[in-house]
Amino acid sequence: MKKIILASSSPRRMELLDRMGIPYEVFPADIDESYPHDIDILDVSSFIAEKKVMAVSTKIKETDKKSLVLGADTVICTENLILGKPSDRNQAVEYLHLLQGKMHKTVSGIALFNGENETVTVRKSVNNVFFKSMTDDEIEWYVNTEEWKDAAGGYRIQGKASFFIEKIEGSYSSIMGLPLFELYDILRSQNYSFL
């Protein structure tokens, strides 16, 4: 199988690529993750994913110029707000208060740059996550686990946050940060060999 350059240092994305058996090299994108103020909230993650692959594709060494570069981004949307990674403990508590007791959307965008033909393919996966109502003590307990660190919306579905998630509608891998169905579909469209 051909190696992919992963424009991310996310352990969750690496774990999901490992599950797929895809060889990869990590080359984190160092970008400004801002986006136009008039962009549709559901398109933000794919916009940032594309920025990541374009930044990395211009920096990779000449021998890798024909590589596939994969970028991904995940955002949490609630009440027309985007909740990124909490900057501190207090913001993590604030985010959980916003999410508890209701449904929110988790949107993962992916972009794949094909160095052979210099094209970018972009997809997104929109999922609904239903949080149960949480007491203040439960929120404090969860924040004390420190799972909120480096996690969009201040929680990790694959960790103890699953205690409070009643159901999801959509893709579990997408909520983790890398929609595998969409990734497989893009790779197959690029004639990527899984053999």
TrEMBL record:
The record marks R12, T74, Q158 as: Important for substrate specificity. Its cofactor is a divalent metal cation. It is an enzyme of class 3 (hydrolase). One of its GO terms (cellular component) is cytoplasm. It catalyses: dTTP + H2O = dTMP + diphosphate + H(+); UTP + H2O = UMP + diphosphate + H(+). Keywords: Cytoplasm, Hydrolase, Nucleotide metabolism. The active site is at D73. GO terms for molecular function: nucleoside triphosphate diphosphatase activity. It comes from the Bacteria. CDD domains: Maf. GO terms for biological process: nucleotide metabolic process. Its main location: cytoplasm. Pfam families: Maf. Its EC number is 3.6.1.9. The keyword tRNA processing does not apply. InterPro entries: ITPase-like_fam, Maf-like. It is found in: Cytoplasm. Nucleoside triphosphate pyrophosphatase that hydrolyzes dTTP and UTP. May have a dual role in cell division arrest and in preventing the incorporation of modified nucleotides into cellular nucleic acids. HAMAP family: Maf. Belongs to the Maf family. YhdE subfamily. This is dTTP/UTP pyrophosphatase. The lineage of its organism: Bacteria, Pseudomonadati, Spirochaetota, Spirochaetia, Spirochaetales. The gene is maf.
